[in-house]
Amino acid sequence: MELFKNKISPDLVRCIAGHFERRCGGFDRAGFESEILSGLEALELKQRARLIADVIDRHLPKDLGERFATLQSVLHPMTEVAFDRGSDEHGIRGWGMMPLGMVVADCGLEDYGRSFALLKEMTKRATAEFDVRPFLDKDQEKALAIMAPWVRDESVHVRRLVSEGTRPRLPWGMRLQRLVEDPSPTLPLLETLRDDPEDYVRRSVANHLNDIAKDHPDLVADIAASWLRQADKNRQKLVRHACRSLIKQGHAATLAAFGLNPPEIRVAGPRITTPKVTYGDAADFEIEIVSTGRNPQELVIDYLVHFKKANGTLAPKVFKWTRATLAPGERLSLMRSHPIRPITTRVYYGGTQAVSLRVNGQDFGFSEFELVMPEEPRIN
After folding, report:
1. Which residues lie across from 324 on neighbouring strands?
2. Residue 57 CB contacts under 8 Å (≥ 6 apart), including other chains
3. 275 neighbors 370 (Cβ within 8 angstroms)
4. Which of 56, 174, 237, 246 could serve as 251's disulfide partner, Cβ 3.0–4.6 Å?
5. To the nearest whole number, what is the mean pLDDT of the chain?
6. Phi first, then psi: what are they for 364, rounded to 5°?
């Protein structure tokens, strides 16, 4: 599998250099390529983009108008393409936009008009979601005033930029602390975009709301309840995705927005059927749920694995399982096999772990199992 950092490759560097050479008089192509390629291999993706942006800054005209005109001239004529569509002899797009967008954010903070006009074109060829953030951080009101009309732009990439670029906690992006503390300025924009014809935009709206939920869960629960009224399937899907973290946490107001009431059930289990699990195998368990309510009830059933940490304490991790509607007195039996295998986001420690159940936000049961880790090879 190709390393992710190779999305920004020596071939892309040479492609960018070739376009600058053709459109910028006196451009030192050999020097440009040498400054980048001599250190590119050792760097990760964002570091590669940062290096290219810094070298572009040294080689392009210092006058902002000339610099932006040059950047505009190297953009690929084809827009509205997949992000991974590569740059070629016709122009730069896809991953090539990452360093070019950094250049705009680095030198354009004193000219919002020209900078946003260029970033609007760049986002059509990939995304400028990271590059609008320094502008929002410096003058949120001015940046949002420019972006607000874009919610009705004909380009799906521009509409998505309004939602994605303003996310308070965008992964890989700088945190927008003012919007973390008060997300209200973006809510009218999200409401306009909630029924966008493109799933690409609606999914961004959902992720934006999920960001907000980390700091303002009750606000997102209220939005969910409002948006779900007379919602079509697309909006229902958006709201479910937006509330995924709150549902996993068992946030009562969010569950109520989805019509999920406190469960009236009797639970047996989880019963562990593999009391000793060797690293690389799976923890198997089963449960039985009996509805004790007088009316049918919808249940969201998740389970928690309580992993042992380095200090010996247990830390729960919620995993989605299933949904079910039970009639009065109905019985539901389920079995699950949870793999305990290497993943990049977790370090396992041998010893006692546990499994529990979460139904409509309420926790049930707690059953332990032993995780056996492979012995470290002895060094003689």
Report:
1. 299
2. 103, 106, 107
3. yes
4. 246
5. 95
6. -140, 140
Instruction: Say if CB 363 and CB 304 are below 8 A apart.
Output: yes
8 with 52: CB under 8 angstroms? Answer: yes
Q: Which residues 6+ apart lie within 8 Å of 229 measured at CB?
A: none
Span 255-267, pLDDT tens digits: 999 999 999 999 9
Residue 372's alpha-carbon distances to 130, 272, 290, 341, 352, in angstroms, are 43, 15, 34, 12, 9
Closest to 4 (Cα-Cα) out of 51, 60, 43, 54: 43
Contacting residues for 117 by C-beta, under 8 A, at least 6 apart: none
Say which DSSP state 371 is in: E
CB 318 within 8 A of CB 248: yes
DSSP letter string, 318-356: EEEEEEEEE-TT-EEEEEEEEE---BTTB----EEEEEE
The token pair that represents 117 in the structure block: 């006009």
**Token pair in block for residue 195:** 């029924």
Share of the chain above pLDDT 90, in %: 91
Strands 276-278 and 297-308: unpaired
228-274: pLDDT as tens digits: 999 999 999 999 999 999 998 889 999 999 999 999 999 999 999 99
Give the chain's domains with CATH numbers. Answer: 4-257 (1.25.40.290), 265-372 (2.60.40.10)
Residue whose C-alpha is closest to residue 211's, from 257, 260, 163, 141: 163
The Cα 154–Cα 368 span in angstroms is: 55
- Do 49 and 43 contact (CB within 8 A), yes or no? no
Instruction: Please report, as a single letter, which amino acid is at residue 141.
Output: E
Query: What digits encode the pLDDT tens for the residues 142-185?
Result: 999 999 999 999 999 999 999 999 999 999 999 999 999 999 99
- Locate 85 and state its tokens: 């569509």
- Please state the pTM of the whole predicted model: 0.85
Other C-beta atoms lying within 10 Å of the C-beta of residue 376: 6
Task: Take residue 118 and report the two structure tokens written for it.
Answer: 């260029």
Residue with tokens 């003012």: 178
Neighbours of 130 (CB within 10 A): 19
